[in-house]
């Protein structure tokens, strides 16, 4: 499974410097290695631990195993209970380039945006991952529109005279 480059999105800018929230690139790695890291765990980590989880590779089977071990060791360093395991999707929707996930389509439609398969396939896996996560039901979706704009899938309101544009 390819791992994204060390990328912070513009929509994450309000917390990137302090890493007070779990950035998308770490969430991507957590889904890759099958660990459910809670925000309460993340808040207990020191800055060095957070930076290590950001920069540590998680692409090859060996790296994925090592990353899982690193996350669990870090959690255990601060708590007495390991983080829960998550099932690893062998075919996650963000790695499927020919089908835009229904949740993403529905969320984009709320903002009068259509994401075609050509646009979807042109995105990087981390960008597709972010859209999948930001479109899940029960998730705070406040950054979805910002992500659409950042990824070139929707013009900003100022560019369209206050109206949303579909691409």
Order of helices and strands: HHEHHHEHHHH
Give the helix tally.
9
Going by helix content, strand content and strand pairing, the class is: mainly alpha
Radius of gyration: 17 Å
Describe this structure in words.
The chain has 9 helices and 2 strands; from the N terminus they run H-H-E-H-H-H-E-H-H-H-H. The protein is mainly alpha-helical and 167 residues long. A two-stranded antiparallel ribbon has the order 1-2. Helix 2 (24-33) packs across helix 5 (61-78). The radius of gyration is 17 Å and the shape is globular. The two termini are 28 Å apart.
SSE order and pairing:
Elements: H1 13-16, H2 24-33, E1 35-36, H3 39-44, H4 47-55, H5 61-78, E2 84-85, H6 102-109, H7 117-122, H8 125-134, H9 144-150
Antiparallel strand pairs: 1-2
Helix pairs in contact: 2-5
What are the salient characteristics of this protein?
disordered C terminus, globular, 167 residues, mainly alpha, 9 helices
Summarize the structure.
The protein contains nine helices and two strands. With 167 residues, it is mainly α.
